[in-house]
Amino acid sequence: MKRFFSLLSLSAFFCVSQAFASEGLILSTLDDTTAPVHQVTGQIGVAGEEQVDQSTLIHGPTFDAVFGIGDWAEAGIHYEILSLSDSPTFDDDTGSGDVRLRLKAVPLQTDWGRFGLAVIAKIPSADDGKGLGTDEADVVLKGLWGTHLFNDLHVFINLGAAIQGDPSTNSSQDDFFLWGVGAEYPLSFGEGCSLCEELWLIGEFEGAVGPEDNTHIAEGEFTDSEAEFRAGLMKQLPWFKVAATGSVGLTDESPDWGFRITFSRTFDLPNMTKE
Asked: pTM of the predicted model, to two decimals?
C-alpha cells in the first residue's frame, strides 16, 4: 500500500508539472476518432486492479503518447511500471511493464457511423520471473465503429482478436475474441456551475472469450469469460484533461475491482510543410 501511494504521488507530480494530456485513452474500448495531423497527445497516470488470484497489480506511472499521422490515422506508444503484491505465486515486486505500439485508422465515414481498424503489438519487456509479464509478444486486432446518438451521446464498439503467446508452452499461442462497448456523454447542470463545464460521463463494458483461464498477468493479459464494467468522469481543466474511472468484474474470471486515473494534454507540433 505504501508503494501504491508513492507511485500515485509521483504520477500526480509529473502530470501537473509537465501538463501532459490525452483524448479518451482511459478506456480499453477504442473510439472512432484519431489525433489531428501535427499534434501529439501525451498522457500519464496510475491504475490498479485485483487479479483473479486475489493479488493486487498497480500500473503506475503509465505513459502514453499518440501522434496524428494522417487525416484519419494515428500512431501511439504505451509504457508502464508495474507493482505486484499479495500474490500466492510471486514475491512482492516492482519492475518494468511491457511496451505496446498502436496504429489506428478510421478511413470510412458513412451515414451509419465511422468504421476503422486498430493494431496493437506488445513488445515483451516485463520480467516473467517477477510475475509482471509473459515474456511473449502479443498482437491485438480490433475493428471499430462509432457514432453520435441524440446529438450528444457518443457510442463506440470494438470487435476483434488477440493473438496471445502462451508462456507455458514453447512456440505456442492462445487466440481470444475481444469485445467492447463504450460511451461518452457531456454533463450539463445549467449556468453558474463552472466545475460542471466541459465534464463528461464515460463508461464501457468490455471482455474476452478464449481457450485459457488466466488468473494473473504472468499467464496472459486476457482470460476466458472475462467481462468488466468501467465508468467514471472526464474533466477538461485549463492546462490538462483529467479522467478517473472505477471498474467491477461481472464474472468470476474477471478482476474483482479496478481503478484508473489519467492526466493528459495535446500539443501542436511544427508543420515542416508550411510555406
From this structure: 0.85
